[in-house]
């Protein structure tokens, strides 16, 4: 077991760190016990609540994950990662508005988190705010020019606006970056079929 746990058995930090390591190793179900131990030592240890929420999320227990994320927030965790995970959980639970607000907050707290920008853009598009969604997808591409999914979604927005040339260009770019991108291939076929 982790050396810091052996040396400091009453410190929740060691249990929390070991739980996070187990999640990274794909052993989320084993991680739960370590977060529970950390929280039994200090029920207000926000990092343990956040880790616990992450483990629950990985296990598909989204409602419980949301409860742990709320505990983490109530105990001082206030960063982009927390709001990103709240957004992911809210999406899984079908709460689009809550997901949108959480992703927006994640981006505000950590403007460098491209996955948060991407999820925020998807949530915006789903709720019909295509202009802001487009801006977010472009932010992703500017920072990561190889993001095929962002190009694909720009193609969808362009197709929705009946801008076939821009849609075709975006779908082609997505396929250039990821030749196996089936959605982009389907989008391109649909645009070409309309043009013929």
UniProtKB/TrEMBL annotation:
Record has rRNA processing as a keyword: no
TPR repeats, residue ranges: 12-45, 80-113, 148-181
The keyword Repeat is annotated on this UniProt entry: yes
InterPro entries (alphabetical): TPR-like_helical_dom_sf (IPR011990), TPR_rpt (IPR019734), Ycf3 (IPR050498)
Alphabetized UniProt keyword annotations: Repeat, TPR repeat
SUPFAM superfamilies linked: TPR-like
Name this protein carries in UniProt: Flp pilus assembly protein TadD, contains TPR repeats
Protein source organism: Sporolactobacillus nakayamae
């Amino acid at each position: 077991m982790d050396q810091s746990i052996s040396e400091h058995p009453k410190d929740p930090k060691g249990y929390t760190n070991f739980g996070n390591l187990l999640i990274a190793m794909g052993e989320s179900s084993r991680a739960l016990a370590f977060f529970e131990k950390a929280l039994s030592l200090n029920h207000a240890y926000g990092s343990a609540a956040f880790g616990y929420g992450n483990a629950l999320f990985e296990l598909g227990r989204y409602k419980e994950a949301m409860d742990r994320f709320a505990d983490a927030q109530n105990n001082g965790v206030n960063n982009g990662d927390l709001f990103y995970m709240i957004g992911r959980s809210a999406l899984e639970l079908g709460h689009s508005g809550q997901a949108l607000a959480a992703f927006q907050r994640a981006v505000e707290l950590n403007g460098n988190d491209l996955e948060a920008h991407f999820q925020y853009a998807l949530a915006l598009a789903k709720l019909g705010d295509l202009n802001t969604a487009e801006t977010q997808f472009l932010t992703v591409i500017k920072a990561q020019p190889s993001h095929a999914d962002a190009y694909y979604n720009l193609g969808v927005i362009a197709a929705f606006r009946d801008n076939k040339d821009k849609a075709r260009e975006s779908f082609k770019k997505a396929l250039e970056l990821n030749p196996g991108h089936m959605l982009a291939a389907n989008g391109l076929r649909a645009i070409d079929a309309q043009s013929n």
